[in-house]
Amino acid sequence: TYQQKDKLKSRKQMQNLFALGKSLSNAPLRLIYTLEHNAEENPANPGPLVLQAGVGAPTKQFKKAVQRNRVKRLLREAYRLALPAFRAQLPAHGIRLNIFILYMESDVLPQIEINTKMKLILDQLVKRIYGQA
User: Fold this and answer.
1) Which of 11, 52, 55, 58 has the most CB atoms lying inside 10 A of its own CB?
2) Along the chain (133 residues), what's the average pLDDT of each consecutive run of 10 residues?
3) 3-class SS of residue 34
4) Do residues 56 and 72 touch, judged by C-beta distance below 8 A?
5) How far is it, in rounded angstroms, from Cα 116 to Cα 82?
6) Phi, psi (5° rounding) for residue 81?
């Protein structure tokens, strides 16, 4: 499930994410992420995996709040469904990963296509994380 502790709510972390984050694109989704390694501080006990995510839809593409909220609902559901497989690919300890997913097109795709795109972009993220490490 997509619980409260999994949601990216901290203003400080969001500002850090948009200022220093790296991005991936897979139309119509854009993913911005920051990755911090906690293992450097205490190698014996690196701490648990911390994964927080947020979703958004730009006001330029979706003028009405009803449309933006629908797109965000679709994104949250797609993320919730892809989350168990995504978590299984990440290491269990030692990292903090903040991600923000934006929907960048003006027309809304069906839920099935958004689910497919979400899985693809999360797989790209895993490949990039392991490519850096």
Assistant:
1) 55
2) 88 94 95 82 70 95 95 96 93 88 95 97 93 66
3) strand
4) yes
5) 9
6) -70, -35
